[in-house]
Amino acid sequence: MEHASLSLTRLTRRFGQTTAVRDVTLSIPPGQFVGVIGRSGAGKSTLLRLVNRLVEPSDGSIFFGDREITRLKGRALRDWRRDCAMIFQQFNLVERLDVLTNVLVGRLAGHGFVSSMTMRFTDEERALAIEALDRLDMAPKALQRAGTLSGGQQQRVAIARALVQNPRIMLADEPIASLDPGNATRVMDALARINREDGLTVLVNLHTLDTARAYCDRIIAMREGAVMFDGSATQLTDDVVADIYGAEGLAEFDAAVTSTSIRPQAEKIPA
């Protein structure tokens, strides 16, 4: 699997008169665990969708190594979306299908039209899906309908589905926002393990400061579409947050921390 740097240069996205992402320039080396924080409407979700081209940029460029992602079209663009796996807050599972089939859906991007429509998978792909589920402690649920799982279990199935894409980058858009603290910890621990064991670059949008500080090598703070801070967890002090967001913003983060405080179970510890 290719490991390369992800580079954003003056990336901008406008929706009418609103600029959701404003002149963002970042270089993310391979294998980094990056947390993106900011208040609602700061541009976090749009930034991730720009990276995997679910949203088209108004200006600027995206490179993965020496490959310009912003110029990709057709099959090359579909391949990039497979290589740049996306995990959503809403899980996006087919609830009537069993867990194993939901994970195997992550393989469809590499299938032809007929096998995609008939959901035909090889024994090798099934073994890959079971292995991914086992890494997320979900293999015993393989034949259970996805709709019967808890929210935290569904999110771990979504991560397994992303894993079987054999991605080069993993994007997670507020993956723990709707989870209780226990399940939030399990999901963040899983992402941290994947980052550490596979050397996979992970970009995750988060809504609490303590989670970002506990798990992320690097934290990017956004406000009104622009990057206001880019540094390590130790550099993101409460004083810095207050400078960026004001006392009201810091109070909002503190309230979120109180309601969804989590701590890593192993190895990834606060810097």
TrEMBL record:
Give all residue intervals belonging to the ABC transporter domain.
Answer: 6-249
A single GO molecular function term of this UniProt record: ATP binding
**Designated name of the protein:** Phosphonate ABC transporter ATP-binding protein
Renumbered to this chain, the signal peptide range is none
* Keyword tags: ATP-binding, Cell membrane, Membrane, Nucleotide-binding, Translocase, Transport
Pfam hit, one:
ABC_tran
